[in-house]
Amino acid sequence: MGVPDGTGSATSGVRAGWLTVFVDLAPDEHAAGAVFWAALTGAALSASRGAHDEFATLLPASGAAYLRVQRLGAGPSGVHLDLHVPDLDDATALATGAGASVVARPGHVVLRSPGGFPFCLVGLQADDDAASRTPPVRLADGHRSIADQLTIDVTPDRWDDEVAFWPRLTGWPAAPASRPGMVRLHTPSSLPVRVLLQRKDEGPTSGHVDVATDDRPAEVARLVALGAGVAALGPAWTVLDPPAGPSLCVTDRDPATGLVPR
């Protein structure tokens, strides 16, 4: 869940030119999870690719793709973030200097933040600089929605480490969000995804995707009809458990701006 309420621009850091959010699906959840996320976003699912046909991209009707699904070899479903950077060596040195640890380097670089959140550094693609943000989807009843935010749910004992790490890695200023225990990064407006840090009560650091909508009851009803279940109800968000894959939140943020309406 999460409801940031501001904007900003990048200053230094790894100079990410684009962001991609991966929904990582356990083997037994992959098929149903991919179908659900395509329906949620109104995107077409690309042909599978990868050594084991494990990757697919959610292709929006307009704008550049920024969401992908991945079938894991093992382990539970989750999410991770790819930062597209101009220089992998420089970005990796910055990331490890800020406290990240390298897990693998199979061409791109797989890392974990100090609190344990998985992310990757990948080379900037030729068309990333020209990529445009995907607009919200307008549904049949007139309401709009877009999956536009990654929230990193941070275990209490690593909260300070994560709050220090992500601004240093990205170069994006951080500021308190609209509620206690939340810190938003001022993600540049040219990028497709906002990033929010949220302190959780217990459990390991993880992450989830937030959906912005101008009609939360209608959007929740739509996703429930696709097979999701309501797990929790908050003052400005609803937590949903999809039929397969990681939980997500539907929030009251403006789908055009990503901000909390005033």
Automatic annotation (TrEMBL):
Domain of life assignment: Bacteria
Domain called Glyoxalase-like: residue spans: 21-122, 151-251
Positions of transmembrane segments: none
InterPro entries (UniProt xref): Glyas_Bleomycin-R_OHBP_Dase, Glyoxalase_6
Pfam families (alphabetical): Glyoxalase_6
Annotated PANTHER family: CONSERVED PROTEIN, HYPOTHETICAL FUSION PROTEIN
Protein name per Swiss-Prot or TrEMBL: Glyoxalase-like domain-containing protein
Organism: Cellulomonas composti
